[in-house]
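Worked example (supplementary).
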Amino acid sequence: MKTFEEKWTAWLDDQLSGRELSEFEASLPDKAAAQAEKAEAKKLGELLKRELSAHPLKNEEFFSHQLRERIVQESGEQRRERARRSPTSSWWTIPRLLWAGTASLAVFLICTVFVMHQERPAEESQYLTQILNARVDPVVSPNATVSIFEVKQDRVTVLWTEGLQTLPADYAAK
Amino acid sequence: MHRSLAVVISVLLLTMTAAPASQAAETVWSGLVMAENVTQPQPIPSELTRIEGLLKRFFGYNEFQVIGQSQKTLKTGQEDWLATSKFFGLHVDARGETQGGYVLNLKLYKEKELLLETEAKLSKRSPLVIKGPQVGGGQLLLVLVVQ
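After joint prediction of all chains, the assembly is encoded as:
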């Protein structure tokens, strides 16, 4: 047994027919007002159907839509590719680390060379001639001795011998 | 990328090695010097000007005359040479270059008789003076200077 509301909805949708239709229309208190309401409901239905349905794409819109989808797809692929190449993506990539290392090494070497050039004269100024060993022929000069003096003031090293054989003045000849 | 790195490293290495390589060959002056006290001393030879004060102060003579000398330009640091006077001979045998100087073996001969032998590391900035035998009223000195 249908309720009034069910029959009203079916009537608005033209779903009633025959005896059921004539009985329902006879039960309406104001048939003219009901017909007007039915017409309004139909109009509203058509309006909603027209506005809410997906309207077909035109050629230009279809092309733009395809293009946008392609761009979105490719952007996604690029992001995935980048993520695949550098799983922990950060500023310190391997090439940048290499460059940073090389630059640091270059700065270190330049500083080292600079400092060495600065210090070299000071080191050499203290660098005196060294006597590694000295010996006098014991047969010719049996009592001879050897001493070493480093005269830092003049930066001269002196090997001092004593007791060498004395020679006549003739030996001073050129 | 790798090529750029290689270029940078090569330039650095060249810069580091260029300075030592650019050092020129040096000359060693070896002299047999007679030191004496005279009333009218002659001017000191130019080779000894640098150490004139030390020679006068240390040995107590007022005149220094070169009686034999030799100038040798060292290229390999393995050269040998002789500075001679009429009776003396100084044989110098360079036995390699070290940092800041040369290792030299020195032998002083009186005619053919070996009087003294020594080995020294001669610094490029520090002359070597050796007191030789007494000759008459004077003194024989051996002087080596890197010029």
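Two points are worth noting when inspecting this output. The helical segments of chain A are 4-12, 18-27, 31-52, 59-85, 94-125. DSSP finds five helices and three strands in chain A.
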